[in-house]
Design a protein that fits this description.
Elements (H helix, E strand, L loop, with lengths): L21 H6 L83 E2 L2 E2 L11 E4 L7 E6 L6 E6 L6 E6 L4 E7 L10 E8 L6 E7 L10 E7 L14 E5 L3 E6 L7 E6 L6 E5 L6 E6 L8 E3 L1 E6 L12 E6 L5 E6 L3 E5 L6 H5 L4 E3 L7 E6 L5 E6 L4 E6 L2
Parallel strand pairs: 7-11, 12-16
Antiparallel strand pairs: 1-2, 3-24, 4-5, 5-6, 6-7, 8-9, 9-10, 10-12, 13-14, 14-15, 15-17, 18-19, 19-20, 20-21, 22-23, 23-24
């Protein structure tokens, strides 16, 4: 592992209050390096109340018909979250750090800040779906609105305009949100979207991550934030979409410690407002970087590396490139996907996001899709969605 993949502290696994989690950090084959991240204050449920029995679920459609783009990955196939394995074995993602004896056991029994992790949740194999229309042909991010039931915020990948689409649950475009960017700014490579608290915690905001850099050539990246506007689903299929200009867009400029990075995953912690970016890297461990709330729109903020996730090996097997993710509305679960797998981390009360990434991941279902990049929780936490740039289907995985 090169120096740029390490946290800036000289001894990342010792001398911190999280040292007692070092053993757990290697059971999943994912290396964590914690850099003084503060607790979230009890992991309280800061999400909105469930909207009801139908809240946010897509129309039920049999995903097994002839139009199914593929069969879902079996969440339990060769990826038991409790199989920690030998922490010192050749090829294990945790070989660069001393984790003790490499004990194995039930991941749900590992204590975090005095709490215990629940069992890995179970989800349906992507049986519900909708079809996105041409306006989101290169869909790269998806987030269900907290303010507007039945509305999803989606956006296209690099080359698109500075705009976000409000998509109804039938795939119809309800509105186009045009972002008024600061002078001289333009949409370079929008890769992910999230909904989280803004300056006023009771007012939800949209976050868009202009964080992509396939050539790893950007010295800074930008995340935009704007309060969620009010949008209604179209009354009829012939109803034209609304056009909404968003002049009050905040721009947060960030740089990485050590060197430039490429990323496609943006996470916003609903309990603290902290922002996280997960690096996309196909040839080594991926850094997790944090910007603590309150975010500053003046100058350039240096991100803090708080974790390293070794996608493509051990418990994070499959593609080595992280392409999207989300944090549940109550802050208790984190999900990150690659091109062909998806994983969930459980967050104990009082634990930080870095603490959660130190624990064994839970493999979760993911329907194979070409260039799959989008992953987002339902607004009521009853499941999650996945989508692709090159596939018209958006899949929903309902919690069992």
């Amino acid at each position: 592992m090169s120096d740029r993949d390490r946290c800036p502290t000289p001894t990342p696994t010792r001398g911190t209050s999280l040292a007692r989690l070092a053993t757990a950090s290697l059971l999943a084959g994912a290396l964590l390096m914690t850099c003084g991240e503060r607790p979230t204050g009890g992991g309280e449920d800061a999400g909105p109340p469930p909207p009801g029995a139908d809240g946010g679920l897509l129309p039920s459609t049999d995903a097994g018909d002839g139009s199914d783009s593929g069969t879902p990955v079996d969440a339990g196939e060769g990826q038991d979250a409790g199989d920690g394995g030998d922490a010192g074995s050749q090829g294990d993602a945790g070989t660069t750090s001393d984790a003790g004896d490499g004990a194995t056991g039930d991941a749900g029994s590992l204590p975090v800040d005095g709490g215990a992790l629940p069992a890995c949740p179970s989800f349906s194999p992507g049986a519900r779906r909708i079809t996105k229309l041409l306006f989101a042909r290169e869909l790269s991010g998806i987030a269900e609105s907290r303010r507007n039931p039945g509305i999803f915020w989606v956006h296209n990948d690099s080359g698109g305009q500075a705009e976000v689409f409000a998509m109804a649950s039938n795939g119809q475009r309800a509105a186009t949100l045009t972002f008024t960017l600061p002078s001289g700014a333009r949409a370079l490579d929008w890769e992910d979207i999230a909904v989280g608290p803004g300056p006023q915690p009771s007012v939800s905001s949209i976050y868009v991550g202009d964080i992509g850099s396939n050539a790893v050539s950007r010295s800074t990246v930008v995340v935009y934030r704007v309060p969620e506007p009010s949008v209604s689903a179209p009354a009829t299929l012939l109803m034209p979409p609304a056009s909404i200009a968003l002049p009050q867009v905040e721009a947060f400029t960030f740089s990485y410690p050590g060197s430039m990075r490429n990323a496609e995953t943006l996470l916003v912690d609903p309990t603290s407002g902290d922002l996280y970016i997960v690096e996309k890297r196909g040839n080594g461990p991926s850094g997790v970087f944090r910007a603590a709330a309150p975010l500053s729109s003046s100058g350039v903020t240096m991100l803090q590396q708080v974790a390293v996730l070794a996608f493509g090996q051990g418990a994070l097997s499959g593609s080595a490139e992280a392409t999207g993710g989300d944090i549940s509305p109550d802050g208790r679960e984190l999900i990150v996907r690659s091109y062909d797998r998806a994983f969930l981390w459980r967050r104990a009360p009082g634990a930080t996001v870095a603490d959660a990434f130190a624990t064994p991941p839970c493999p979760i279902p993911l329907v194979p899709q070409n260039q799959g990049e989008a992953l987002g929780f339902a607004r009521d936490g009853r499941g999650y969605y996945s989508a692709s740039e090159n596939d018209d289907a958006i899949y929903f995985y309902e919690r069992r």
